[in-house]
């Protein structure tokens, strides 16, 4: 049964979903990393491509930008399409001085200014974290590949353009590795719906030293390391 945002039957979506933010990147993953990929949904230009990766059925589907957009797709995938695991794979801005542009960050927790951390339990701030098995699988793959990989918390912001840059030093002191816009929403959706989730990101620019921004070509080249870690996390 189709939902308002996904126009296919439950069997058309694999139990494991790779979720970049950009619809064009989802299509690129399908065309370059999947065997027998087929387009199963294309509502509002958000294509869902299902095929196999190394013999394992997977779907590549974009989330759009931000917690609200991702939460729509992740909730429908978990509740209506039998999805067990979703791995966000994308980019982030670096915060920690230990992180450099082109490094990979695997988010072991997601701090946030989004209401997803507090809305379900008034007076309580949820600790938003990934699946341990997915985290371990992605970390093992990234380290085995010789990549510069960092495991730790990220900050999921509801704002891309914000005047509150004064919080960045405090986030750095608390060990926050980078900033992005979706991980906390994904972790919250997984927790609410009995699923598993992980976020793996390439550092595309750095808020602390101003390095970056990566070119579109560099983003695509460096994205491959994060993608392989995400795939390993899904299969773990």
Report on this model:
The chain is α/β, with parallel strands linked by helices and about 240 residues long. Strands 5-8-7-6-9 form a 5-stranded mixed beta barrel, surrounded by 4 helices. β7 (about 150-155), α4 (about 170-175) and β8 (about 180) form a beta-alpha-beta unit. It has helices at about 25-35, 65-80, 130-145, 170-175, 185-195, 215-235; strands spanning about 15-20, 35-40, 50-55, 55-60, 85-95, 105-110, 150-155, 180, 195-205. Helix content is about 30%, strand content about 25%. The protein has one domain (about 10-235): 3-Layer(aba) Sandwich (Rossmann fold). About 50% of the residues are buried. It catalyses: uridine + phosphate = alpha-D-ribose 1-phosphate + uracil. This is Uridine phosphorylase. Keywords: Glycosyltransferase, Transferase. It is an enzyme of class 2 (transferase).
């Amino acid at each position: 049964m189709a939902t308002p945002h996904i126009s296919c039957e439950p069997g058309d979506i694999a139990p494991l979903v790779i979720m970049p933010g950009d619809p064009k990147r989802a299509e690129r993953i399908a065309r370059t990393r999947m065997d027998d990929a087929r387009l199963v949904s294309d509502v509002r230009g958000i294509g869902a491509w299902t095929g196999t990766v190394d013999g394992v059925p997977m779907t590549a589907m974009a989330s759009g930008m931000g917690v609200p957009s991702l939460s729509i797709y992740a909730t429908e995938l978990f509740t209506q399409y039998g999805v067990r695991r979703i791995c966000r794979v994308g980019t982030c801005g670096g915060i920690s001085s230990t992180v450099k542009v082109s490094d990979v960050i695997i988010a072991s927790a997601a701090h946030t200014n989004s209401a997803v951390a507090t809305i379900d339990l008034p007076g309580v701030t949820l600790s938003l974290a990934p699946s341990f098995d997915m985290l371990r699988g992605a970390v093992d793959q990234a380290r085995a590949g010789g990549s510069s990989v960092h495991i730790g918390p990220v900050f999921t912001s509801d704002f891309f353009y914000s005047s509150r840059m004064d919080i960045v030093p405090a986030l750095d002191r608390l060990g926050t590795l980078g900033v992005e816009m979706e991980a906390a929403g994904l972790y919250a959706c997984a927790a609410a719906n009995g699923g598993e989730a992980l976020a793996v990101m390439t550092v595309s620019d750095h808020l602390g030293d101003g390095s970056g921004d990566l070119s579109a070509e560099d983003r695509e080249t460096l994205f491959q390391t994060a993608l392989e870690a995400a795939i390993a996390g899904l299969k773990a």
